[in-house]
Amino acid sequence: MFNTTSKQVAVDLDQADVLKKYRHHFFIPPGKTRSEQLYFTGNSLGLQPKAVQSYIQQELDDWKNLGVEGHFHGKNPWFKYHHFFEKEALVVGAKKEEVVVMNNLTVNLHLLLVSFYRPTSSRFKIIMEAGAFPSDMYAIESQVKHHGLDYDDAVIEIKPRAGEHHLRTEDVCQAINENGDQLALLFFSGVQYYTGQYFDIKALTHAAHAVGAFVGIDCAHAAGNVKLQLHDWGVDFAAWCTYKYMNSGPGGVSGVFVHEKHGNNPEMPRFAGWWGYKESERFQMKRGFKPEPGAAGWQLSNAPIISMATHKAALDLFDEVGMDALVKKGKALNAFLEQIVLDAQEFNQKLAFEIITPEDRGCQLSILTNESGKALFDYLTLNDVIADWREPNVIRLAPVPFYNSFMDVWEFGELLKQF
Predict the structure, then answer these.
(1) pLDDT tens, position by position, 304-327
(2) DSSP at 343
(3) Among candidate residues 78, 84, 43, 47, the one with its CA nearest the CA of residue 60
(4) Helix (H/G/I), strand (E/B), else coil: 205
(5) Is 357 helix (H, G, I), strand (E, B) or coil?
(6) Domains of the chain (ranges plus CATH)?
């Protein structure tokens, strides 16, 4: 916590910020009441890197000038375009062969569940957090039904204890142990979208593996946000979108992680497509699927180049800065935001809310409001604060280290005080 949240503190923090120049690498939407919006929804859609246009233009130029030959003779040959994302592995703590960029998030989750959720009569249960993001809930529901199982029999949703807002690791581990003989899969988010809780993935993975279950993680709110070590933790599979903290455009491509112990097993069951076929023999057009080793063997189709170019522009910034620096600033921004919110609440008695994000968090603060919550959110929106409202009464705030400043946070606090 900060001893004071004065304007001068914000000024001093911004002056000392080693990442401050990167704010100018992004387009910050203009406001109506100020020159730039106070943009706190990087957990929903990250801002556009200014380099995106030139990255896309390069591919459009190659398409215009080379046509189909762009696959092999373009500046960034499309045939091997997914290889340009090997640094994606550094964002999630993986080996480069364990990660591939392809498709969209929920598509990839289904493809991975085909491989890792193969229920038997004795081992068929899935443990997941209650109130998971809807796509996760729907994906699990449909996978269970696809196997002819009843959702209530097959899926165990873990809820927080009465009167609490986030899950305790020991409660999840207890559920794992109690259902160990029947547990096929632990499927959790890395960071809970609603509360912002950063789960102890290492501990949960260890507990699930101890009873013989696979572990899958939806890293949509974790990738580019918190420190991940998917390989070292032994996670079996994971997927994430790139349009949130990774700033890669609306509906952007998705990343996939498959641990090497599975990725290097050609007998691992999967749905197959020609782009996952062994790359050195792909154009021989033979019958019989031979997967490319690693996560690349889960590809189905050739890359959507324009969307991938957008992601490449963003990923190059991640490579330049590194996750350690981003996480360090993100923690400082979030701590400053928390103190700003608490100070504003003490100053303005009209502000009745509760912070429901635990200390284990990334760049997100969720505040549980009362009946005045929607009026507060609307007031903030009219004053060019772009936050996120989640039913029934939570406001999510996510200052992002790439482009948010401490002064953004301080100005937000001043608006709270004036509500």
Answers:
(1) 999 999 999 999 999 999 999 999
(2) H
(3) 78
(4) helix
(5) coil
(6) 7-50+323-418 (3.90.1150.10), 76-321 (3.40.640.10)
